[in-house]
């Protein structure tokens, strides 16, 4: 608004004096008009006055009849705007002026298109998504409906500028667009928190825009499979939340099961989110800061892991001014065992999303989490593996990576021994990409073997090469898979050479075969394959060998791994019973009906195992029941 | 000194030629006077000559009668100082001049107020406290009596400038004050080490000023308690040394006991020092570089820890040009077991301060350390916990944090089961802050539980939230404490459910009850509570249950934890005897009279425990003796 | 080429129009000549045209008869080169011009001497050795025959410039030399990959120069010793490959045995390479980025280690655009056990060099590696220790460090109990440096002790002080060695006090003494000395005590360490036999004839040890056979 044109006419008797808002610029003032001013400097040749944060100039000594101190208020006339931009004023003595407030007339610029406004003063409205203190200025990262831009405010070297502004505040910012080392940055002139209606309007604008930009892509399922397709709306909701989290510059931390299916789930999501971050965030370090993936040692979210994750998140918040992260649990996170960890996070602003295919306990888990996709919630089961779901999830986030993922559901399914009918189609799909079934199985083995030696380091580049997701060298991928899977097989052979002669056999009353092996004493320790996998291998061989119902127990000093085929076990119930019956046994554990693991105190092993075998002897046979590897196993 | 005015008059027969010192500026020279000069460049139109590092100019070719090479010396007259600052000279031919040395007349600037001298050339005198080589210039951090400022000297890209200057040298530096990314920096023009008298004067000035600035604050004790107040002079000495260490830009590394009292001791000191560093150091990274806190796994300073600490310190020294650190031991460090680690540090410039309340061995320890506060040195005992002392220490360093610390001594005392009379007052003080006794006890549990899962990571942000020291969210603090202490209790219940049925009881000849439990075989391993704490819990229950004298032994394969109430044990003596009597038992260990732990070789457990029990059976009863948790326990 | 002078004369009928190559500068153009031009901007007052990447100017509107769009081609005359560098053109209408291509005439600058060309536009030809993406420009590190310089190319903030250029491409680059924070950098104007003949010429030039610069120094052996001197050509080849690797900016990763000889081998090589890197790379961080040393836990290259190393290398490649490293194995790497790790690396561009003195298996190893020095390949044996070889290797790389290394071969030899005749001379050499034999032995102990507590952290600064290689404080070195070796002796005494009473003795049929000790049950665990060293100490004492043939077995739950003196054992053969005879024993392991270690599954210990002793009882006596510590021992 130009007061010279638009201001109310005060008439000759009550002259109008304009009061510029703090963010007014010279374009809001006119020569010849009167303004309220404040003295901000006294020099030999006059006094300097401020009309707003950026409009100021000199009242020459020759025009002054009285002396002023800094802070004094007076009314001035804007006499002249010189060619070099300097302003000159004269003081005006008025008794009872009519004061008219002038708000700054401005266009709000968009962070996404500041590249064309280098050197200009711009107005931005958005949310503060990160506040990083440097040795010089404070850097406020401001996000609006079009992107994010760093804005440097300087108070004093190393001193936090605008301490009144917090992360997630909505602000109005005025500053000059600069190019710094080739990247855009705004040098802040003024920065104020929005309030009331203004805040609502801006929040609305950003929300609407984010919502729109967060919208996931429509994807055609890789294969026709109604069982999986019914989960699509839930997966789309997860995709939207993840995209939105990126747009809000909130970091994402993925915790996933450290096995084949877990990696088939997390690698596609990682690739999709990294591509999306690349597109939406200028800073090349954003990919690293906004996304972190970590395999979990245990098949659930342990107190140790959550304590460390929380500690790191708080450290990042304190040091880099980042938001607390969103936690995405993959192939993990649906069970009651995860609840203590979730409860620990509940005291902090850390949303949680879960995509899992382990038997869920939604009553226990759902109060703590913000999204939960699991086939059991649709009366489906583990056969829809997390890898299968997450390939579709990744495509919803960033569909361009589809070509890199066609073989992944087959690897996931084979790794987790999915008996889904759809496996045939998934394998055919992978074959059309040049993979035969044996090689797909080798990829699963190689993922397992690599993960074991990485000892819960994510090992991104190495694992990408194994799964051929985001890998740029097909030949290396093929060689690496062959090498690692061969090594895995050789090591397994060596392990079984040592263990097999010690496997004890007995025939249960039910006619089922029971095999027991002490994997602590009769297998190598601290090497591949670990106890759970060793037990599984023995079990599989015995099932093949006998063609009859088989139960296998691999036990160590304070744990036992259980596998069964063709026997109607109910491991969770057995654990409950054992805990009551064996006093001081400290029995706990879990798993599915026919596969799982239990823990107990070392000194009670004999009693616990004896009681366990007794229960197994009573179990009915049922040849439809087959064990898989998706149970919770002890394998650290 | 302006030679034109002050120089001796050489008379017409022996003209005076002035010899400017290297740091002289134009203000030390005058038109019309004669100067010794050195040719530094030969060009078509004349030669350039230097009078000092910064005074130089042209002798025009038209005035030259002979040719010169770079490095030649000659006498010149300063003919004119042009408006643009250029100087012109003419050569003067003099046979036997009287040479008068001219020192530069300057005012020494203060690093603390360079903000007003941006663009000016200044002189600084101070100590070099850090030398960091960058890919460009070498950065000398210069500290004087008012502060520290980085000074950039450039020799060649990535090449160490002024290799003759070492860390801790006193120097005279001339340079231009610049603002760089908003922070102040001095671009070095000349840099020389001070020597002799000059060095002494500057050292004196800095020492006096540092001494004054290091002076700790006078604080009123939180409660009236003469037993503690008599330690105040010693604590003030520690406070002064710590403040001075910060002012000298020497890093401080804290090692503390990883339990409740240890954290109640170290967190207040950390907060106080971080605030003090913030005030005295501009760089925001100073807080991180100058202060590091690490919990110790063992209750003493292990060879592994000291080796790693020393290695990191040497690495920081080599990479960042930092001084070696001062080591502050909290709730740890008073015993003979710490001596080997101290002896290792003795070969390096690493001062050591100790504040501890474990039974000290000053004869063994004091030769290695520079400050030692321990209640036993005043005929007091463990009841004055380290947390109680360190709250006062922290207030001496930075009194403004007093409001955040009033509840801490109570938590410390409850955690360490202090039977001090003053506990009543401490608890009342905490109650006035809104904490009831049960919640204070919960905070102790929560600290323990958090520390256990952090696995010896300091976990600053998380632990601050638990103790509510430097935490900004009261509600989160309360919720977090409730959550963690509940979890600790649940886990303890579960552990005792397993262990209790296996506790063996016998009645000693002395009528005391002896309880034994195999915490390796009848408790969960690698989880909370660990063996020592499990033993303590069992002991406490048995004391309550029987109301009579009780000894409890929790043993693992190669260790035993001992607790006793109402029995006159002398564990250190028993260890000495056992070591002699059980040949090849490798018995070692320690602790207090009635609480402690011993180690032995695995294969001799039966013999060691039998001999131990025999000794215990002979011990007299004495109902005043109560065990506490401050003994040295095995809990990793 | 100046077309005005050198171009073919097209005659009046067919005017010559010059077509400037993209990298042509104004020096390639002349006033009055005709040029092909492309419109790159349309403004009110005319159009701007490009003749090449850097030659452009205005065609004034007054000279235009028709309108142009961006991208239109036209022929122009260069009318004038103004004083300020601006060019003015007029359009020329020509039907059928004779076009003459003009290549840019330029001098190729040398990266090693850009310091004198700040502000100039230069041409560089070289290899891209690193590509680092920043938040602003992309930094290409370009290496030619004289050095390496960073070159900044800007596309868009954070966007990879010149995605068509890959690491290891040979390029032609035009840019302006700038000084940035004191370091040189080239701002890229154009960057193109060289192809065909041009590429060959440049590659040839670089190769020849690198080859020359990589040439190792001729060194006189420290002592006259033909056995070692015959290895010099092989060592020179290794030195050359290492120097060349540095010149090519490929990182070097050293993996070495974590014992005395291993450190005497790796520290000199580290010092030499760091000095060489310092001389050849400007960036001060180059020393850290281009060289990393890590001790190996096992006496061979484990799958876990190689997996981690590869993972880190791939991460450095992805994040910092570095080349994959060269792997240098020292005192390690010659045996079949290393092959799986090497096979894993074979899928990546990671050359491998080995300098070792353990019994090699060249048939298994050599297919995977690029250089192999081992005394056994010359019919010599372990007595030429790796430390002895590597001192000479280090001197070939950087001879100036010779004075710091004279005592090192003696330490290496004493550490590994070398019985070489040359030991006398090596010890004399060390004595001439002020070391007596006892102190040399203490240094070996101190290295061992320090390495143990560093837990496989390289601990550079600390270990340098112990070995006095790159240490700047002789007194500290002496004190530190005394302290650490004393501690090592004390700890060893304590360990043997516990273990000695449990040593079981029997007399074999062969009259040899057999000593057995359970180092898991009768020695402290997780402390110094570890099981293998404990066994060695016991063995040495028994050899001294008896003066007769002795075999010592130190066993734990799943391993046994073997030492023998005066008995003709063949441990590798015994392992092979045991593996066949003890079914399900999982026996594996290795070592030399008379020293080694074996592994087995825990539950079969009795059977394995009994069978082992039986075999030993049959072994013939042979007093010449002495055990040393260079066998592969279990010591983690």
From TrEMBL, chains A, B, C:
Keyword Plastid in record: no
PROSITE patterns named in the record: S1
Coiled-coil regions listed in the entry: none
InterPro entries named in the record: DDH_dom, DHH_sf, NA-bd_OB-fold, NA-bd_OB_tRNA, S1_domain
SMART domains per the UniProt record, alphabetical: S1
Hydrolase in keyword set: yes
Name this protein carries in UniProt: RecJ-like exonuclease
Organism: Haladaptatus paucihalophilus DX253
């Amino acid at each position: 608004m130009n007061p010279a044109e638009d201001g109310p006419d005060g008439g000759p008797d009550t002259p109008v004096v304009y009061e510029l808002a703090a963010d007014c610029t010279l374009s809001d003032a006119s020569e010849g008009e009167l303004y309220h001013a404040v003295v901000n400097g006294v020099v030999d040749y006059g006094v300097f006055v401020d009309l707003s944060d950026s409009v100021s100039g000199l009242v020459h000594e020759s025009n002054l009849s009285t002396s002023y101190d800094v802070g004094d208020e007076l009314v001035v006339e804007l006499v002249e705007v010189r060619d070099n931009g300097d302003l000159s004023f004269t003081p005006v003595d008025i008794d009872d002026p009519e004061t008219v407030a002038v708000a700054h007339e401005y266009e709000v610029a968009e962070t996404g298109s500041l590249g064309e406004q280098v050197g200009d003063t711009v107005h931005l409205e958005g949310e503060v998504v990160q506040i990083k203190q440097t040795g010089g200025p404070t850097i406020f990262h401001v996000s609006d409906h079009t992107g994010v831009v760093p804005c440097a405010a300087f108070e004093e070297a190393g001193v936090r500028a605008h301490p009144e502004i917090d992360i997630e505040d909505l602000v109005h910012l005025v500053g000059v667009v600069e190019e710094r080392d080739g990247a855009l940055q705004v040098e802040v002139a003024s920065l104020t928190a929005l309030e009331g209606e203004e805040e609502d309007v801006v929040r609305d604008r950003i929300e609407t825009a984010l919502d729109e930009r967060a919208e996931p892509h429509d994807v055609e399922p890789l294969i026709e499979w109604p069982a999986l397709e019914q989960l699509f709306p839930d997966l789309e909701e997860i995709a939207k939340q993840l995209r939105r989290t990126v747009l809000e510059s909130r970091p994402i931390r993925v915790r996933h099961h450290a096995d084949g299916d877990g990696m088939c789930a997390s690698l596609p999501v990682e690739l999709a989110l990294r591509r999306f971050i690349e597109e939406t965030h200028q800073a090349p370090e954003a990919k690293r800061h906004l996304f972190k993936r970590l395999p979990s040692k245990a098949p659930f979210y342990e107190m140790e892991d959550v304590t460390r994750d929380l500690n790191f998140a708080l450290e990042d918040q304190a040091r880099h001014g980042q938001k607390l992260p969103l936690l995405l649990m993959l192939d993990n996170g649906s069970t009651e065992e995860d609840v203590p960890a979730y409860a620990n996070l509940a005291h902090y602003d850390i949303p949680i999303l879960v995509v899992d295919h382990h038997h869920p306990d939604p009553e226990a888990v759902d109060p703590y989490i913000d999204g939960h996709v699991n086939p059991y919630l649709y009366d489906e089961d583990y056969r829809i593996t997390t890898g299968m779901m997450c390939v579709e999830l990744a495509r919803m986030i960033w569909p361009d990576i589809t070509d890199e993922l066609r073989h992944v559901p087959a690897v996931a399914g084979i790794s987790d021994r999915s008996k889904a009918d759809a496996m045939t189609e998934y394998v055919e799909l992978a074959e059309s990409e040049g993979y035969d079934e044996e090689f797909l199985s080798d990829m699963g083995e190689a993922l397992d073997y690599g993960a074991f030696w990485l000892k819960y380091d994510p090992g991104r580049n190495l694992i990408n090469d194994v799964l051929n997701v985001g890998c740029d060298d097909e030949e290396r991928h093929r060689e690496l898979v062959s090498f690692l899977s061969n090594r895995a097989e050789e090591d397994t052979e060596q392990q079984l050479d040592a263990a097999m002669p010690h496997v004890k056999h007995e025939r249960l009353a039910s006619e089922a075969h029971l095999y027991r092996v002490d994997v602590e004493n009769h297998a190598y320790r601290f090497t591949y394959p670990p106890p759970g996998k060793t037990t599984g291998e023995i079990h599989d061989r015995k099932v093949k060998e006998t063609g009859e119902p088989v139960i296998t127990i691999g036990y160590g000093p304070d744990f036992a791994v259980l596998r069964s085929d063709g026997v109607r076990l109910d491991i969770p119930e057995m654990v409950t019973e054992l805990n009551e019956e064996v006093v001081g046994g400290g029995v706990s554990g879990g798993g599915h009906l026919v596969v799982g693991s239990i823990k107990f105190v070392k000194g009670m092993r004999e009693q616990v195992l004896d009681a366990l075998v007794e229960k197994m002897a009573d179990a009915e046979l049922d040849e439809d029941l087959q064990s898989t590897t998706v149970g919770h196993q002890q394998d650290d």
